[in-house]
Amino acid sequence: MTDTAPAPSRRRENTRTRLMDAAAQLFAEEGIDATSVEAVCERAGFTRGAFYSNFASKEELFLALCERSAEATLATLRERIASLEADDLDAHTELHNLVQQVLEIAAQDRLDVLLNAEIRTQALRNPDFAVAYLALDRGLSENVSHLVRDIAEARGLRLRVPPEAATELLLSMWVSATEHALIAGRDPRAAQPELAARLSHILTLILE
């Protein structure tokens, strides 16, 4: 007997995905405050009824986007880590590659950077968004920190700072570099050389 999801469930998931994809583009381009439910529906090709059968509000959809983004980043990171662990690398090279993989995963296009900036802006303005954002950000940071700790322990590396501090430093560096590139009129992916240069300095500081 084949274990397959009922057709209505698949259709519902497809509808949710298309609504979220459309909203991600509009929130990045216009901001959540300037984006209406009607605009999301028009971009996705659905009616208001389809929207409200999946999300209670525009704000609920926004929070779902935050969660999806964090889960996708973490899933990709875990795949990269598994690939790295399969290679016979010395300890310092492996940790360097690990951090580089994190930065490469975070290297996003213009809309991704704008959407993440919008998420942080809304978290600053709206206490409900702030609670959700901090929970997601904390979860992502904790998972990345655990991965750094596991690799360091498995390969006999010693860190001068806690993995949590190293993770916060690296991710903050990524936000600064990608947003600065966008402000300067460059593709955020063009920030990779800058990130790589900073990476070398930071690894020198955190590794014994």
Structure description:
- With 208 residues, the chain is mostly helical.
- It has helices at residues 7-30, 37-44, 48-52, 58-85, 91-106, 110-125, 127-154, 163-183, 192-206.
- The protein contains nine helices and no strands.
- The mean pLDDT is 79.
How much beta, percentage-wise? under 5%
Spatial gap, N to C terminus: 56 Å
The structural class is: mainly alpha
Poorly predicted parts:
none
How would a crystallographer describe the biggest sheet?
A: none
Mean pLDDT: 79
As a whole number of angstroms, the C-alpha radius of gyration is 19 Å
Give the helix level as a range of percent. Answer: over 70%
Secondary structure tally: strands: 0
Task: Please give a handful of descriptors for the protein shown.
mainly alpha, 77% helix, 0% strand, elongated
Give a nutshell description of this structure.
The protein is elongated, with a radius of gyration of 19 Å. The protein has 9 helices and no strands.
